Amino acid sequence: MKHTALFLLLFSMILTGCSQKSSDQPALVVEDMGRNILLQEVFADCGHSDIVGREKRSAKETESELLKAYPGFTLSALGATHATLIKQRNGKCGEHYLFQEYKGKIAVFRENNKALLDVLDVSVGQLRKQDQKMLKDGISVYGKEECAAFWDDFGS
Ligand SMILES: [Zn+2]
């Protein structure tokens, strides 16, 4: 009987201790300032990435809750205030341009979807043999500025 009483006393002390701890907790909870979510697509062939979204969500969300909110994305970084989610894409990003011969003229295409963007009124036949050969195969250029510079070179 004595043992049981002692056990009960100890047990109730433990319970009291626990409940005191949990009642202290609300004061320690930091205000949810939110977490900035960055969504990126990463292209397999060039390694470049595009930002496809920025959102602000609760900082209390767990890794699995975040992944559930963005199907097809994987978590690349998760911090208290920031998280980055990425989605793998095939091919190249939209910043790659291809200069190529098109109906005897110089044309520029978007490389990832082969869309014709513009045709320069310069006959490929007027160019040096070396340039003609390169334009047959296609010249890959990255970035709008590089593309514009290339365009000017051929036009002049
Ligand atoms: Zn790229």
Largest sheet: 4 strands, mixed
Helix-strand topology string: HEEHEEEEEHEH
Chain-averaged pLDDT: 86
Bound molecules: zinc ion
Over the alpha carbons, how many angstroms does the gyration radius reach? 31 Å
Total tally of structural domains: 2
What's the total count of β strands? 8
Order of strands in the sheet with the most strands?
Answer: 2-1-4-3
End-to-end C-alpha gap: 105 Å
User: Which percent range describes the beta-strand content?
Assistant: 35-45%
Structural class by sheet pairing and helices: alpha+beta
Percentage of residues assigned to helices = 25-40%
Number of helices: 4
Low-confidence stretches: none
> Which descriptor suits the 3D outline?
rod-shaped
Keywords:
2 domains; 8 strands; four-stranded mixed sheet; alpha+beta; 4 helices; four-stranded antiparallel sheet; 156 residues; binds zinc ion; Ubiquitin-like (UB roll); single chain
